[in-house]
Each structure stands twice: as C-alpha cells, then as structure tokens.
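Suppose you are handed a protein chain with no further information: no name, no annotation, nothing but its sequence. What can you learn? This example shows the usual starting point.
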Amino acid sequence: MDRNPSPPPSRPDGEDEEEEAGGDCIGSTVYSKHWLFGVLSGLIQIVTPENGKSSSEDEEQQTELDEEMENEICRVWDMSMDEDVALFLQEFNAPDIFMGVLAKSKCPRLREICVGILGNMACFQKICMSISSDKNLGQVLLHCLYDSDPPTLLETSRLLLTCLSQTEVASVWVERIREHPAIYDSICFIMSSSTNVDLLVKVGEVVDKLFDLDEKLMLEWIKNGAAQPLDQLQEDSEERPVFRIVPCVLEAAKQVRSENPEGLDVYMHILQLLTTVDDGIQAIVQCPDTGKDTWNLLFDLVCHELCQSDDPPIILQEQKTMLASVFSVLSTIYASQAEQEYLKVEKDLPLIDSLIRVLQNMEHCQKKPENSTDFNTAETKKSDLTQDDFHMKILKDISCEFLSNIFQALTKETVAQGLKEGQLNKQKCSCAFQNLLPFYIPVVEDFLKILQEVDKALADELEKSFPSLKVQT
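A reasonable first move is to predict its three-dimensional structure. Written in structure tokens, the prediction is:
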C-alpha cells in the first residue's frame, strides 16, 4: 500500500481547467475538493444498504472493502495529515460520516482507516476540540476500544492519546473513560493477551497518560478487580475474567521488552506511578506472586540489561528515565517487603553493583566537555541540558535512597562476600560515599563500622578520604 500517494487524479477532460487549478484546490494544496467529495460520498454509500438487498447479503459485503475504494480512502488518510485538508474535512462534516461508518460498518479495514483519519485530524487543536466536544462521536470512539481488530485498536489508542495530550480537552476524555468501567477490562485484556508490540506500546502510553493526569482514575483502576478474593476469582473465571492492573502491566512489559525499549520505558513508568499511592504499593506487594513477579522482572532488567559493565557510560543518557522508574519500584518493594523470600540478602550485592555503576556513569557524563563538535544554538543546548540535568537529578536521588536502604540491611558476611567478589572495593565505596554524603551520614557511618571488622585497612583509607566521618570503633 502506497502510504505517500500522489495527489488525487485530475478532473475528467472537458472540465474547466482554470476552475480546477484554482477553486477546486483544498487550501494551498493541490488536492481536489471534487475528488474528496466523491470519496466521502462513496463512504456514505458503503454503510447505506441498497434497496432490494437482504440484511445478510449487506452484512457479508460490509466485511470486505473494494481494493480501489481502499486505495482512495487511504489517500484521504495520508492527506489528512495536512492541516488544510483536515480543516476542509472538518468543514464538510466528515467526522459525522466517519461516525456513521464506525457505528454501522463491520469491515475492520474500513473502521481502522476512519479512526486513523480522525486521529490525524485531532492533531490540530481546533479540530481536536471540536471532535472532543461531540458527545456522540466520543461514545462511538470509546466503543472502538472494545473492537477485536488490532489495527483498529491501535488507531483508536493513537487518537485517544492525541486528545489526552491536549490540555484543553484531556479532562473531557478522562471523565468519559471513568463513566465506562468496561474500558478498564478491555485495556487490561489487551495488555495481558496481545502479542502486537505496536498496540501494546500505544495502549501503555494511554494508560501512562491517564494515570499521570488523574490519580482518582488510577486509584479506581487499582481497586478494580481487587475486590474479590482469589478463590472466588477461580470459581467465576468461566463467566468473566477479573483483571488486576499490575499483572496485566507486567505481561505487557514482558512482551515489549526485547522489541521496543521505549515501550518498556512506558510500562516501567506506569509501575512507578502506581507506587506513588499506598493502594498501588499494596497492589504490587500484597499478593506474594505479584510482588515476586515484579521484583524478578525489574531485578533481571537491572542486572542483565540496563547500564551493564561493558556499556559505555553515555548509555545512561538513553536509559536514565527507565532506570529511575525501575530503581524507584525496586526500592519501594524492598522497603515494603523485607521479609519476603524473594528479597534474600544475597541479592543486595548485584543491586549495589548496579547502583554504584549508575552513579559512576553519572559522574562521567557530568564531566563531559560542553564544547562538542555537534553544534546547536545556545538556547537549544541550554534547554536540552536543563532537561537532562533534571532527569539525572531524579535518577541520582532515587539511586541514593535505594542504595542507603540496602546499606542499612548489609551484614558482616554480606560485606565480606562483596569484597571477595568485587561488588565492593575502594573505588566503588568511595563513589557510594561521595553520593550518599552528607544526607545519609548515619548510614555511611554504620557501614564503616561493619567494614572495620571485615577489612580495617580499607575502612581506615575511606575514613581518611572523608574527614566528615567520625566512626566510633
């Protein structure tokens, strides 16, 4: 399918060429108004049953789309990325036509294209506000989230994300979604069962945006499915599955993990948002299996994928937001579930190693000279640096808090093992101290007391390097 088509065909021979060159063009484009009218008229005919046809014949025909018609509607889809075309479609009441198609057509490809065109149109603020203010269209579009066709679901999610990203109309869509509890089930079903990575990423972005916009909705979704006890869930499973938000998020994260790092970043941020409220923390840790699954997935990411020892330090720039989310969730689980079997003390050492490596890489990135061969304007460079500094500061704060929690749980045996295996040495301890001080002085002092018993020479060296520490021995 040609996704960047030529302009629509010229009008038939014999037509007034002067009129075609001027009055027939849409805005400043070369696209023909009359051609577009013809395509939209064809759309109306598709969903309007012809006289004499039985409903069964009509239904059978509606599931397929004529190739020529598909090509023409796809041209409209591409054209709708142009603002002049989008505004013209809006003036011609095309959204009403698309709403009729979505309400009546059983053709998956046609539904996908119509939602896709609306999604392109919604990228322009004025049109987005008009679409969002149409209550009937809003209902029809949300109903598309119950569709079984992945491409239609993808375009619906894209449209929804576009609207949620417009501050003027975001609250309208949040309220509509709250009024339709079945949307929760549909989204959870997609996250827990789909293997379509593009769809999972876009649905994840929608959930992330919803949770970021409205804590009340997030709390409702956390509690949704948590009211029934586990044994009752099993008994009722044949009638209707009950979805819990955390397992669904984890399943989607596992699916996108290897194919889409940006999508994995989104799902890690969803988990982090869940930990900003007590109910969200409980949704993760209250069920031992869910807590264990969350911990194991994130622990594996940290120890085997993110910011590894053979990665260049600059990798931190790409992974900083995901690392901040992962460390934040791990830290929350660690603080909440210290007694759990899956949080054995021997897992502290790999985490310490990863946390210190992140802090070391952070120091390396901050020492990077400003005069680079890659030149931008002063304003752009300042803006980029400010954004990077902001995310780096968040990552540093989260890393230090998590590291301090682990340091407090260290035993003499664990420290000895860490020195033996290389997770702890002078360089790494110095980096840890440099970042933990002065905010975590008691934690560092307690660690030094243990170190005095395990390796007095190293403890003395570190104490000399950090005169503010006065450890009682």
